[in-house]
Amino acid sequence: MLDVHYWTTPNGHKITIFLEEAGLPYNIIPVNIGKGEQFKAEFLAVSPNNRIPALVDHAPADGGKPLAVFESGAILLYLADKTGKFTARDVRGRTETIQWLFWQMGNLGPMAGQNNHFSNYAVEKLQYAMDRYRNEVNRLYGVLNRRFADRTFVAGEYSIADMAIYPWIVPWERQGQNIADFPHLKRWFEAIKARPAVVRAYDKAKEINPNQGGIRTAEERAILFGQTAASVAHAAAKAG
């Protein structure tokens, strides 16, 4: 019923966590972003931004033709609405869930991504950039630590907001952070990590991509970090 165009990144993990938590049947279509598979015509048809993940629902609620959704936050909202799970139904609870989901999309994800890039992937080590993004990630960890001081989950009950945030905390060491400095965040992190559905989602990731992480090859580096409008158009034409 559900096709998930997926690779083993934090944004990809969000979707498999939801699907495992909800117990929904789904089919993973691997999109190896290091090999440029995100430029293939069949993927661009469902994800025009040439980024994973993307979802195709072959049985949408309106009974119509298959429905494609891209952007991980939009996919989580779509699945929550489809299933009636992992977001509050009342206006205040739903608003709280959505705002923390958007917090991850607009803050933790982009800042952690830039931190990872400049600290671990950039050939030229720019101290200003490294400090800037590492410090901002540290600030965001502090936001979460304060949030979890008096609650179990980020927005009431366990929700899509927790699912969105967790994969971006997993590589805390790679982010240059010490999770022990944030005891409330650490407690939440360990609790989410132990959930059986989360374990299953990460086990699937290991099956699909056993060699996660590490230094990118020159070819991968060019594919992942050198994209312009022209280069994307060329890659898409080459991929067919």
Could you characterize what this model shows?
Helices cover 56% and strands 7% of the residues. The chain is an alpha+beta fold. It has a 4-stranded mixed sheet with strand order 2-1-3-4, covered by helices on one side. β1, α1 (10-22) and β2 form a beta-alpha-beta unit. The longest helix is centred in the middle third of the chain and has 31 residues, at 91-121. The chain is globular and about 55 Å long. The relative contact order is 0.15.
Beta fraction: 5-15%
Q: Secondary-structure element sequence?
A: EHEHEEHHHHHHHH
The low-confidence runs, each spanning 5 or more residues with pLDDT under 50, are none
Number of helices: 10
Biggest sheet, spatial arrangement of strands? 2-1-3-4
Give a short account of the largest sheet: 4 strands, mixed
Task: Report, as a whole number of angstroms, the end-to-end distance.
Answer: 26 Å
Look at the helices and sheets and give the structural class.
alpha+beta
Q: Average pLDDT value? A: 93
Shape: globular
Helix content: 55-70%
Can you count the beta strands? Answer: 4
Taking all Cα atoms into account, the compactness measure Rg is: 18 Å
Task: Using brief descriptors, characterize the structure shown.
about 240 residues; 4 strands
Describe the structure concisely:
The protein is an alpha+beta fold.
